[in-house]
Design a protein that fits this description.
The protein is an alpha/beta fold and 367 residues long. Helices cover 39% and strands 14% of the residues.
Length: 367
């Protein structure tokens, strides 16, 4: 194909031209036998009747990132759907995983699909049961863009149970297939399909996968192609997450939501929100004031000199900070002694069931 080009090679394999150099007579005979059953014009007509078309290298709609596959690049792709494949693929992410996924995996995949769609990303997957279907449905539910890459012809919905889903994707997004119309999937064709998913997108997210999952094939091909490869962690006791965890021990990046995926595969400025625990009132105190508060004894209070000594400040500085804390409601003054206030105001981060807080300490805990 690389040396002769598709037209000359087809003629050679059909007997209308010189056979390719190095091809045995037996191999040529087998190719000619298969060529007798081919009907390119009929395939184009079938695809057109289903609203499809054939896109090949050199067309304006051809996504150039597929050329990274080298000799493994598809000869062309059958496409159903109105959008431009090249434009949609420019900002796309693959979400793949186990067919027999858990409720956790389905929930995460659907949430990722919806979250990425809401951020303007095209969700790409294989339309299979489990994680694939959940990712597609999540994107569709958010009125987003999604692409299904099939291991069959674009007119053969597989799995059969997803016929309605695939039709909806064709209406709202794109359905792709490397094989011509009328072709049914085989085991090897799923593996071949996975390389297209890996090369077409900016990155691949694996939600759930066992050690021998085909989703890991997609992820490892993405790694070889220099694409971002991500994994969503699961319970360490779950075999469905064992493959993902093995991937994360290598070069894959751990992600937990769509914001983190977008930060990794997106451009400058697409940052995930910073992760932090709940904010409590004492977190907003000046460092010196916080030290003075920490120096107060939870068992009966302290005088100003003790507070200054334990906080490493002068007596005047300690007194100034204690009056600040008094104004804020953290402490009380009883004669010459300063004590922690018995309760603190509840803020938005305090939840029912949290331990009771006295001043800056959990009740019952000693210094």
């Amino acid at each position: 194909m690389r040396e002769m080009g598709p037209v000359a090679l087809r003629r050679a394999l059909c007997g209308a031209g010189e056979p390719p150099p190095g091809a045995s007579a037996e191999r040529i005979a087998g190719c000619r036998l298969r060529a007798e059953s081919l009907d390119p014009a009929g395939d184009l007509a079938v695809a057109a009747a289903r609203g499809g078309r054939f896109v090949c290298p050199g067309d304006l709609e051809w996504p150039g990132q597929l050329d990274d596959l080298g000799d493994a690049r598809p000869v062309g792709l059958w496409v159903r759907g109105r959008p431009s494949l090249r434009m949609w693929a420019l900002r796309s992410v693959a979400v793949v995983g186990a067919r027999a996924c858990s409720d956790y995996g389905a929930h995460v995949a659907a949430t990722l699909g919806a979250g990425l769609a809401e951020r303007g990303w095209v969700v790409v997957s294989g339309a299979a049961h489990g994680v694939d279907g959940a990712a597609h449905r999540g994107a569709l539910a958010a009125d987003g863009a999604t692409i299904a890459v099939l291991a069959s012809g674009v007119d053969i919905p597989y799995p059969r149970g997803h016929a309605e889903l695939i039709e909806r994707i064709a209406e709202q997004g794109l359905v792709l297939a490397e094989l011509p119309p009328g072709t049914h999937p085989t085991r090897s064709r799923f593996v071949l399909r996975n390389r297209v998913i890996a090369a077409l997108t900016r990155g691949t997210v694996v939600v759930e996968a066992q050690y021998r999952s085909g989703s890991l094939v997609t992820a490892r091909r993405a790694l070889k192609l220099g694409r971002h490869t991500m994994g969503v962690p699961g319970p360490v006791t779950s075999g469905l997450s064992s493959g993902v965890h093995e991937l994360l021990r290598g070069e894959a990046v751990l992600v937990t939501d769509a914001a983190e995926v977008a930060e990794l595969v997106g451009g400058i400025g697409e940052l995930a929100p910073a992760r932090q625990g709940p904010l409590v009132e004492r977190d907003l105190l000046d460092p010196v004031t916080a030290r003075v508060l920490e120096a107060l004894s939870a068992q009966g209070g302290s005088d100003g000199r003790e507070v200054a000594r334990d906080s490493g400040t002068s007596c005047e500085e300690a007194l100034s900070r204690l009056y600040e804390l008094l104004a804020l409601g953290f402490v009380e003054r009883h004669g010459d002694r300063w004590e922690l206030a018995p309760t603190v105001r509840r803020n938005d981060s305090t939840r029912r069931g949290d331990p009771q807080i006295w001043g800056n300490r959990v009740k019952g805990l000693r210094r």
